[in-house]
Predict the 3D structure of the following.
Amino acid sequence: MSRNRSDEVPYDRELIRSGGVSRTRGRGRAASAPREQRRGARSVRRRRSPFRAIGILFLLLLIAGGVGIFLLGSRAAAFNATVSTAPFPSTALFGALNGSDRVNVLMIGYGGGDHDGPFLADSIQVLSIDPETDTTTTIPIPRDLWIEGISEFSQNGKVNEVFAFGEAEAGLDEAGNRLAAVISDVTGLEIQHWLSIDFAGFEEMVDAVGGVTVQNPTAFSYTNIEAKYQAGIWDRGTFPAGELELDGHDALEYSRARYTSVFEESNDFARSIRQARVLAALRTKLGDGGVGSIGPGLRLMDAMEGRVRTDLSVIDLALLSSHLSSDRRIELSEGPVLTATTNTIGQYILIPTSWTGPGDYGGLRAYIADQLAQPIPSASASDGAAP
């Protein structure tokens, strides 16, 4: 007959189970002691579990952050490939914006699509950034500025035609490069980079950030047909004075309105001021960078894809966005620097006041250089806030 294995163990199993209390003494305490020990063991485990949970959460956040950065980088790289001639990742502005020489970027707006003269430049502006003072000067270039005697544009014509000729010959990249070269020559500024956008892209950009708010100092009604302008027929709408909430369509109309009920608003100079207000408002919507700017930035990338062409990388576009609000404007207006006349076929054109013949832009260059040398009264002023 076999024996029970418990009879063979060389220790008192019951004594160990009882926590050192024999069967014959303190049976009540013997029952309670193991429970207290187990309760103590559980309490130790509970005290450790929050730290373990925090560690796991931290690890998950690191993983999620890494995935987020990867996805954001992938999205930026894909966007860069569709809009820029510069490689990703790269930057031409980071060092320049932390240097001492001016950084000059040409901003070009054009109709595109089914518009008449789809590649005639409708808006031409130079953003001249002074890294030492961290200020931006905007120099709008009138579309009717006459270009003659410039090697980069042997055809001769209005400056807004340069972009169209370049696009017809070799596409948007050549259009941007050629207009930048011409503007460099006539202004005396080294235009290092350029960015172009069509009307639809402009609308979509504004809509992508939920619209913009501008202060409009002068109420005006408008039309888009010269004959109706001459007849005083304002069939396109009215922009009242005061604060305006503009969606993409209205922002484009506000920026482009040329035939208006107010004489002072019916020229390229007034248009360029309105365009600057919209750009400043757009800059406000983008924020000051950081996590809060990621959402608007991604929406802008979606809006700009297929609508923007530039020689700046997506990293440089992010750097440039903080300079869309201008601290000063240099107006190339009739009188002090430009003179209105007509060309041989009767077109209205603007030439430098001191013009002596083809290629003479010395007076224009000197005027711009002198204006840029003047101190900016207040670095906090901007077109977005100006009345």
In short: The longest helix spans residues 27-83. The CA atoms of residues 310 and 358 lie 30 Å apart. The domain at 84-373 is CATH 3.40.630.190 (Aminopeptidase).
